[in-house]
# Entry
Amino acid sequence: MTTLYNLLAILRKELLSYFSSPFAYGIAAIFWLMSGIFFSLMLSQIISNVEFLRQSGFAEPVDVAGDFLSSYLGLIISLILVLLPALSMGLYAEERKRGTLELLATSPVTNWVVAVGKLMGALLFFSVLLVPLWIYQIIVFSAANPPLPSGLVLVANGAVILVAAAVLSLGMFISSLTENVIIAYILTFVLILMLWIMDVFAQNLGGAIADIFAYLSLFQSYQDLINGVINSKSCVLFASYIFLGIFLTAQSIEALRFQRS
# Structure
């Protein structure tokens, strides 16, 4: 019970820090503006393509809603991957900068509880940013005939949450290593970019190394999920990255705790 109380306290603290930060509101404004522009452009492009096919005498039905879902989430993830390091960069770096990380490291609250609480707070704030995207999808899917399977929509949007959790978890670890938020942002962005394009490296390699690189790629697993393909590989990969980030963060703070003792 005490562990749960501490976890909720950390989560609440992180949420309040986001909602009281002008920087976070600036990130939200930019994200909502860009996602709205992407929505308008993507929907207009798909409608134009359908009209072109119709005028060309193409008789087969076109799944506009399905095309929009995969195309929009495939495009919006590029914006999300730029945004997420900005949300994770201050999770521990700000604590180091203010000198409160030492107090956190020597507190009776376990490192795992603190890490999970911070990650949940950042992920919950990110989920708030996704609300307009869900509204956009409701607008499109409400007019779909035949209706798009709700399971496909849930899996695709769940993929966005999983990617966010993995990136925020790894970014949290990097944030625990430095007090400079700019360095934390850059290192996180570079790391995520490398994990995202692992499949590109795999295409230029061969043998077991290529298989390993392809497996570690966030991109391929994300693409599978937004297309409605659920497999154990994707779920295990995202869960592994989330756990790895939390584990490394806890070890990083434990090392600080050992130094102070």
Residues 22-55 form the longest helix (34 residues).
